[in-house]
Design brief:
HAMP domain-containing protein; single chain; mainly alpha
Length: 77
């Protein structure tokens, strides 16, 4: 009987460890998901800004306002 109780105690300890590990993995995965979402948002912002920049540049070039572009470029350097 003592051996059975010992095995049951060990099993309960292992179950507790599995629960703790599962919670840690879930927490870690959630953290990584949040970081990935943030990186994705930043990446979209970069692409959006770059597209806007290229669109403005194309508009300036097509309307022969290169001197305006030079002023904009110089002020951003």
């Amino acid at each position: 009987m003592k051996s059975f109780n010992s095995m049951l105690d060990n099993l309960q300890k292992l179950i507790g460890e599995v629960k703790n590990t599962t919670q840690e993995v879930t927490f870690s995965t959630d953290g990584m998901l949040q970081v990935t979402k943030r990186a994705s948002h930043i990446s979209r912002e970069v692409v959006h800004t770059y597209i806007c920049y290229l669109s403005c540049l194309l508009l300036l070039v097509s309307s022969n306002h290169l001197e305006t572009y030079s002023c904009i470029r110089d002020s951003n350097d």
